[in-house]
Design brief:
Elements: E1 7-10, H1 16-29, H2 47-50, E2 57-62, E3 67-75, E4 83-91, H3 100-114, E5 119-124, H4 129-137, E6 141-142, E7 157-162
Parallel strand pairs: 4-5
Antiparallel strand pairs: 1-2, 2-3, 3-4, 5-7, 6-7
Length: 163
């Protein structure tokens, strides 16, 4: 990884295969099941097209050769119109702890506000401790039950932040 060449940028069509491979590598490595998580999402192999809607955005952390992480926002399926969902925020192990998660989350929340969302929802797993700490540091609060219809039935932690 060329740290000097890393940048956070909007997803491009050529990122789809690398991003799908990254998520398929990283998510099972956390102990997450394949069913009921982002691994089962039909959009996984066509992320660029999925996030081209005017109410959505997705970014990757990449150098000239490889995608190292990413994350985005989109309307919460089955939720109210003012709520977006933080989606598919995953990073290769080599990138973790370097501040890119924090920078990408900040960008996502700023963009959500600009798009007119009033809250941001996310789902994750209880053993993703670094992610949970990051979300809580940005003001995400735990919920007692899921919101919307994400299809991520394996996720056991639900959080929301007022924007």
């Amino acid at each position: 990884m060329n740290k000097e060449a890393l940048q956070i940028r909007r997803i491009q069509p050529g990122d789809d295969a690398q991003l799908a491979a990254l998520i398929r590598e990283v998510l099972p490595g956390t102990g997450a099941p394949c069913e009921g998580t982002a691994l089962a999402d039909p959009s996984l192999d066509r992320m660029f097209l999925t996030y081209q809607r005017p109410d959505s955005a997705f970014w990757v952390v990449a150098d000239q050769e490889q995608v190292w992480g990413g994350g985005g926002i989109a309307p919460l399926q089955g939720g109210d119109a003012g709520t977006c969902e933080l989606q598919k925020m995953y990073f290769r192990e080599e990138l973790r702890g370097m501040g890119y998660g924090r920078a990408l989350l900040k960008l996502a929340l700023e963009t959500a506000r600009e798009l007119g969302y009033t809250s941001c929802y996310l789902e994750t797993m209880p053993y993703m401790e670094a992610a949970l700490a990051l979300y809580r540091s940005y003001g995400f609060a735990d919920l007692e039950r899921p919101v919307g219809c994400t299809g991520h039935t394996a996720c056991q932690v639900w959080m929301r932040k007022t924007l």
